[in-house]
Amino acid sequence: MIDVKALLEKIKASPYEEIVVAAPHTGVVRFADIDAGTRVVPTSGSYGEKPGTLLAKLTREHNDKPIYAEAKGVIGQVRRELEGTFVEAGAELGVIRHYLSKDEVIASILQQVLYLFRAPERAKYYFIPSVDKKVKASGPRSVTVKDGMELFIVSRMKREKPLTYEGPEGIIYAVYFQHDLNVDQGAPLVGVCPESQTSLIQDVVNRVRTDWEERE
User: Fold this and answer.
1) Which of 73, 143, 169, 207 is a plausible cystine mate for 98, CB 3.0–4.6 Å?
2) Domain boundaries in the chain?
3) Which domain of life is it from (predicted)?
């Protein structure tokens, strides 16, 4: 049995994820006015019309290509020694420390404590009609799954086929796919939890929602 409370304490000790800022292509790099501790925001707006914090520019064939922050957080490191030099695509330019929101903490815990049943191929996935009806009426946690149970319809190239669940018996605690959207191979479809652990996991989720202090 996984100690979910210990997982929460571990996340509290390092309440952020480090996101590497990499050069999207080759060019000469010039950094913006940023340094360790600088707060940054990502691109926003309904159509991405509000650019995020400018981090650097890459000059390529006499054209400046801006690099904007892709996450909210603070700058943890800037590779100032690269200023004015030619860098290859993928070169690390710096690091953003993105402080986790309540929803991100919950998602992180769930992905570690649940059994994740993953998509075997890139396709669209649907619950079989009997399960879909139950999920819509009472939510996914009303569904108990067992190994070998027919659970999904896989839709690919205008062809449909059934997919059976393979894994431990339990209830569907989380659903990760959306109807009519392709799911990449290996991405989780559902997270399954032994019925005996549902109350413990829900207690931790509730604790995060009430106690977690989000940082601006």
Assistant:
1) 73
2) 15-99, 103-211
3) Bacteria
What pLDDT is recorded for position 29? 97
According to the model, what pLDDT value does residue 199 have? 87
Are 73 and 104 contacting, i.e. CB atoms less than 8 angstroms apart?
A: no
Helix axes 102-113, 4-13, angle to 10 degrees: 140
Q: Which of 89, 22, 88 is nearest to 56 (CA)?
A: 22
CA 76 and chain centroid, separation:
20
Which pLDDT band holds residue 2 (cuts at 50, 70, 90)?
Answer: low
CATH class of the structural domain 103-211: mainly beta
CA atoms in the 13 A half-sphere facing the CB of 175: 17
Q: Span 15-99: which CATH code? A: 2.40.50.100
Which are the contacts of 130, defined by CB distance < 8 A and separation ≥ 6? none
Q: How many CB atoms lie within 10 A of CB 54?
A: 15
122 against 6, higher pLDDT: 122
What are φ and ψ of residue 81, in 5° steps?
-65, -15
Contacts of 10 (CB under 8 A, 6+ apart): none
Q: Is the pLDDT of residue 44 over 70?
A: yes
- For 58-68, b/e burial (b = at least 16 CB within 10 A) is beeeeeeeebb
